[in-house]
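Take a protein:
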Amino acid sequence: MKSYKKRFPFKIGTTSYILPVKEESVVSNVSFLKDSFDMVQLLFFGREYLEEVMSRRIILDLGAIRNNTGLSYTVHLPSDLELLSASERSLGSSIDVIERIFTETAPLGIEGYVLHVDRLERGIPSVGLDAAHAELFQRAIDAITDRLGPDAAANIYIENTTYDLVYFSRAILGNPCRVCCDAGHLLLHNHDFRKFLEIYEGKIAQAHLHGVAAGRDHQALTGADEIFAGGVARFLRQFAGSVIIEVYNLHDLVKSMEYIERIVEI
């Protein structure tokens, strides 16, 4: 596909699963994308599958690509961590996983580690947030910072998922961790994009963009919601962080990049 390297005010990237997952490895995907994008997001889907994305051989191969092309990496941490568990043991073992990933991917100069503070199956509800959720959230990100140290914690980007991340602004704004703004999730769950930016603008290090169709996210960007799209376009024109087109096949990636070219006037 065509090159978008250094095309925009922000770094542009996509996921490490654009080619068919059953047929192509992470390294094959990165090799395919390296000449078209500034960055690739390495997806770590589950903590039981870490060797599939960060074995010693994979890290060496990804490092060679980085050294030869200048490609940057960001990591999406496993979404099955138990950070909100009331159990100290479960919380500690989840932070063990984060610490291990930090250590083993260090040779790649990772620019950010995207984190779901909740887990997909039993996380924070999309409605009905209360003081108990706020306490668990605060405890989780404080424990991460205590373990990793503030400098490393600043390289963790907390992503909004099904719930309104604005509810936890006090905890996030008082912590070194930064924010990943997933615009597709905001649209899917009818959360206020403008309010999100007002609260977190100085904290947003990365944005995830993907379309929503028939109640499903991670689809091609099409601009179906023009009011929302206008807000995203204004945001992108002044954003200097990194942007990940979070789709999982080549067709959706090509369509999404055509859309980005239209709304970001360079």
Summary: The chain has a mean pLDDT of 93. Strands lie at 11-15, 39-43, 72-76, 113-115, 156-159, 178-182, 204-209, 211-213, 216-219, 242-245.
